[in-house]
Amino acid sequence: MKKIASAIWEYCKATDKLLWLFCLSASAFSLVLLSSMQYNHAVEPGDISMPIQTIAVLLGIISALVVSAFDYHLLAKLWKLHVPLTVFLVLLTYTPLGITPSGTKNKAWLSLFGITTFQPSELLKISFILTFALHLSKIKGKINSPRNLFPLILHGMIPIGMILLQRDVGSALVFGAIFVMMLFVAGLSWKIVIASLGAVIVAAPIVWQSDLLNEFQKQRILVIFNPELDLLNYGYQQWRGRISLGSGQLFGRGLFTGSSSFVPVVHNDFIFAYIGQVLGFVGCVATAALLLCICIRILVNSMRAKDALGCYICTGVFAIMIFQSVVNIGMVLCVMPVIGVTLPFISCGGTSVVTMYLAMGLVMSVHAYSKRKKKFFED
To answer: Does the structure show a pLDDT above 70 at 377?
Structure first.
């Protein structure tokens, strides 16, 4: 017993207690929100399974505890184990085993013993962060050399291409954000950044005129510039979301009042609209502040990391948090198109929650092992 107590004490001293506090607070808040949705009849029966969501949170916490107890160098070097597994699971979605749940057109899910579904691309994010961080750390700052940059680009394009084949544009953009942010932190030349931005600007009208974007995706983008364009079809979700968001005014209607405005997929992509409805402007600001605290804490760990690998891992996790938070809130505010991106820790979705805790486990591993030793290897 003394050894167990001593191990727990040592873990508590080494781990990032503030990050734990922020993440657990976000999960607790999420469970209260989802319970409120059921009580207020904001969702259809069966949209939310509180037992499954609660189990997912507990599994996520356990996963973070386990991952954070391991040296992040070891986790990165074990890529031969986790990469084939996550890639295989994604490839299964291309087969008849792949599922397209109601409310989406993406065949990106698998059934979990007929009880629930899970999204393999979420787990692939973790593998990609570890392998790409390891790749960048081995280059040792010579990122702008063509012989180093082109393999890095290929490394990033493979998972992005795999997710695009699922027609999951939202997840593909998250992978793109991880890829770009990690490259930037690794020292990508400003000349390459500016040239890439110029290429995107030039290519945008070409892509728009081509068949790369279907009519549904184009209309989603056009709605951003004219919210009244198609209120009963492409713009319906954001229209209902804005009504719900604004109806709460300053302090909201309350969590358990027995009634609510209808918003499609409010428990997932548009949960921020529900926060505005039941907790008002104050609740929205508090939620954004909590997510920002998590982002800042990840950045702090990134800056305090004792080597490049730890820094890059934290950067990849930060990219997920900041990109998904900004895009999700932007969708509700109608300043970004609806692309099916969840609000980290808050939205309903078991795979999303477990993945976010796995990511936080990586950050806590960097925090703990950077404190224990000055350096694991020379940069």
So the answer is: no
